Amino acid sequence: MTGTAGRVALVTGASSGIGAATARVLAGRGMRVVVNYLSSTKAAEELVADIEAAGGMAMAVPADVRDAAAVDAMVEQVQGAWGGVDVLVHNALIPYAVKSFQDMTWEELGGKLDAEMHAAYAVTKAVLPHMTERGSGRIIYLGTGLSRRPRAGMIALGTAKAALEQFARYLAQELGPQGVTVNVVSPGPVESRTADDVLDDATRQRQVAATPLARLAHPADVALAVAFYADEDNAFMTGTTAAVNGGMAMY
Fold it and tell me: What single Pfam family name could you report for this chain, choosing any that match (predicted)?
């Protein structure tokens, strides 16, 4: 495919779920993929092996994206092996409390906000010099439909991701003249292990019933939207949010 071959893509939180699906898609389109992970070493190494077996190029690099020094070390390792990062897919999920505001402490709400934005700040700062030097780059953040459509118990995640979406718009405005696009992919509910921890069967059934396409998203559905934004040929979309929710919410 044109516009992808040989470029380096860093996918944070890539050992499972949406991140792993994105790594597979981008590698399949000719990118060299950095599989970032926090602690799932075996899963990350298996993903790299799968990508390489399919003819792609990948490397697994551990780093806590909330730790700026760890992020800088990861990007330096990538630069030493492959040069700078051309595509950043910031997917890593920062833990959060699922509870009502009335039951929530400031440490739970403010801590999620701080960690969410600190991670986005750190990974973006680390990859940006190479992108601006080249005059080209793609930054894609993973958001959530909960930032626009509240659901009980999800105030910490929804508020933090809403901040991330506005952060992306400001970056899109600032970095556009330097050839760097910044966009958000905003999934609705996704069939995954993480969803299993949050959604009970009754909630899942209600969400499927409210979705015109009559199912929840698969990780690959989200990955393909990310890949669209990541393509070098997709040069005139920035500051946008793609809702990958099967029509559950339309805006």
Answer: adh_short_C2
Helix ranges (H only) for 66-214 are 68-82, 106-134, 155-175, 193-198, 201-209
Hey, what's the torsion of the CAs at 108, 69, 25, 237, to 10 degrees? Answer: 80
Rg (CA), the chain: 17
Tokens of 116: 């969410």
User: From CA 206, how far away is CA 90, in angstroms rounded?
Assistant: 29
Quote the tokens at residue 226. 């990310």
Query: Would you call 248 exposed, middle or buried from its count of C-beta atoms within 10 A (0-12, 13-18, 19+)?
Result: buried
| Residue labelled with tokens 């118990």 | 153
Handedness of CA 226, 231, 237, 239 (dihedral sign): positive
pLDDT tens-place string over residues 135-154: 999 999 999 999 999 999 99
Give the whole-angstrom CA distance, residue 227 versus residue 37: 20
